[in-house]
Amino acid sequence: MSATAALTPAHLAAGAGFGLIGLAVCAGVALWARPALVALAFLIPFHRLAVAIVDHAGRWPADPVPDDALRAFLARSYYLDLSILAGLVGGALIVQTRRRSFPRPRWLVVVVAADAVAVGLLSVALGVHVPRAAAFSVMLTVAGPLSLLAALCIRPSARTTTAMRWAFVLAAAVLGGVALVEQRIGTRLPLWLGGAAPHADSAFYSGPDSTGYRSGSLLRTPLELAFFMAAALPLALTTLIASRRARPLATIAAGLVIAGLAVTYTRSSYLGAAVGLAVIAVAVVPPRRLRALAPAAVVAAIAATVLVAAGAGGAQLGHGDTGAHLDALGGDVDLVRQKPLGHGFGIIDTIGQQFDPAALPHHRSSEDLWMAKAVEGGVEGFALYASAVGAAAAALVVAARAGRRRGDRGLVLAPAGPLGALIAVAVAGIFLGIEDVSYLVPVWALAGAAASQRPAIDSAGLHAGA
Question: The whole model's pTM is what?
């Protein structure tokens, strides 16, 4: 729909529907905050499937180049994301107004809230090329920080945090199981979901002759699934370590997450997941044992790097070559040099291409999530994004150290999982510019839940009120 097109009754009905969804989420969080967080952690990964079920066209977003009908589908899924995020934040603010105390840790609240507000102001200052693309790009940038702030306001208990982690890991296990089935049936999965078979030049195929098939499961592309699984694996591992009675279920879930990550055949996510697991090892393993295991870990890392590099020319891992990635990175650097203050949100990454490619100043994707932030928001946009991720990671490190000083493994694992997930996505993002609400909201909400635990507040020297 163009900017000047009149609103039809269908558009108004759709807007009312998304508004009702947002109000329902807001009411659910305000009235039953902790169960609502657990439910959202499980349901959000299936947001696109929900739209496909109710979409009258039955379209599934598997096409590499969206047509008008597919862009309409994607717009509806983005509006759903926005409704859920707005409802979550609104409900959390209502919960906060019932309390007299300020959310803690206060420094984290101030830093992350300031970053989110600054991103919104920056998007306006830089101008808007494609309004819907810009709005969704801003939403993706602030979705994580706002989810963290919502969790800090709600302050879920340790039991609720564990339930949230289980919910997200089980959702990841479902997606991993579907990905395994997709490896057997190939393009029949998107066809069953009402979409078209992916084109040979899309991310679903890899190798010089596009002979290898990569699973996308119930997410839009294999790349989104790869980032999702890279974020889920550290959380699955911490769930497995912390589980006692439900260890068999946790083992199966972790296995499905590993399998789901494997069948995406995405090297950047393999590397990100490995670094995320290393972060958990540092947090969980006692320092003496860690020093003893360090040489073996280095050897294993080198061996894994060699094996991945050797397989890069195969039919599966050969999608995209190093030279193309470096060329794209060089192009991003040139764009930042041209406009250090930013070109505007939603104009370079795959978000903009899904809305209106003809209106984009630069019609190509970024191969680096971090550089995409710099191209869109300039040096200041890059700094805001990095500061939000850094602040969340620092708060989780404080929480993990507090748990270790108390000798409580549960208090160590609670922040170690989301910390590993954040690091995994950050590392994978160096090589691919992928973001999706399916993992941003649950992972950052888990980070906020872990950072708000009382031991972390005490260790930071802050007031430890209710």
Answer: 0.89
